[in-house]
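SEQUENCE-TO-STRUCTURE ENTRY
===========================
Question of interest: how does this chain fold, as expressed in backbone structure tokens?
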Amino acid sequence: MIPALTLHRPWPEAICRHGKLIENRVWAPPPKVRGRPMLLHAGAYFDGAGADAIRELGFSVTPKGEAPQGLVGICRVVGVLREGPTPLSLPRVASVYDRAYQKHVESLTTSPWFSGPWGWVLADVVELPEAVPCKGALGLWTPGAEALGRVLEMLGAAGFGTYAGLPTLDEVREVEARAAAILAGKA
């Protein structure tokens, strides 16, 4: 299935609407997301200092009480930046997972969005027409079949039904049916 990453609000908004194509983490992206689709989940916590930082870059931020929670977008992790060897040095390109994105990854070494130590480089960001409610988790996690099915329906209706690497809605329903059969002891 497709992994999801929960972010404090309003960071998912910055990714989906304001061109924040770097997600800062203290860990490198694991193999299951490298070059593959990843869902963006807006968590319950609202980062007030983060909202101020986004405003300082000249962008608007949806107020805390109005910012959606749940699955809000999808993207692809196409590379990773790593902090430079000294505090004054630029980040360096640690890896590019798809050579088609080489220049894209290299162009972000001077991005104001990078704060390190690892910067997951994002591309092909699509904001969902509405948030899909579901509970998030720390680290990478897998949404349930119902939430994933709703995401796929929305992407299909918006013309993104062929987003590379996504299962079809029928495949999700098949996995859901198998899981239900196993839980019912009929497998």
The chain has one domain: 4-143. DSSP finds five helices and seven strands in the chain.
